[in-house]
From TrEMBL:
Provenance organism: Paraburkholderia franconis
InterPro entries, alphabetized: Asp/Glu/hydantoin_racemase, Iso_Racemase_Enz_sf
Family indicated by similarity: Belongs to the HyuE racemase family.
Alphabetized Gene3D superfamilies for the sequence: 3.40.50.12500
GO molecular function: amino-acid racemase activity
Segments traversing the membrane: none
Family annotation (Pfam families): Asp_Glu_race
Annotated protein name in UniProt: Asp/Glu racemase
Domain of life: Bacteria
Amino acid sequence: MAVVHTGPVSVQPIKEQISEQIPDARVINIVDDSLLSDVRAAGHVTPEVASRIHSYMANAQGMRVDIILNACSSVGEAVDSVRNFISTPIVKIDEAMAEEASFIGSHIGVIATVSTTLEPTVRLVKKKAGELRRAVEVTVRIAEGAFEALLSGDGARHDEIVKSAISILATQVDVVVLAQVSMARLVPQLERVCVPVLSSPRSGVAALKRALGNLPKVSAPSSNR
């Protein structure tokens, strides 16, 4: 399988989940840390970013991988168009999480440390809720300064900012969605939060595993005796 990342912070969390859930997988990580920087600078996915995402996934298909995982919610909508041109199955890391949130409650909180992730995640949550015929209301929050702290190496500061923002948001909603893979490491520290807190690596890799299981089996060639 190939995993397409827009920065280094998503590599380890997803690697850990794949090792746990699909231990025999061979993983090719494709990392371009300029993608998220360009999206943040523009405030949205640009045609150039979408083109590079398409190129990386086409390259992954050229490597003959069985499946591709998109690791970044900020570029998830660009991946939707890539699916029209790439025959290799593509799983988005956050689709299963958005679906699960829609099952849990009608008032969903979405929290991010990068503003460009918020709107795509909200649209995805509403899309999944619509597919399930569930009416939802979404409240959003930005954990200001957390992502910058993480990039500067101050993980403790990042965690403090995000946990504080989650605690406040949890009092207003039925379930909290962590919009970025980089926030998932906080889940074990959130046991006292009054509502469920969902992160994408575990459910996203579980969806990846299910998709792998649904792929057509390739029969070994029979030998003539």
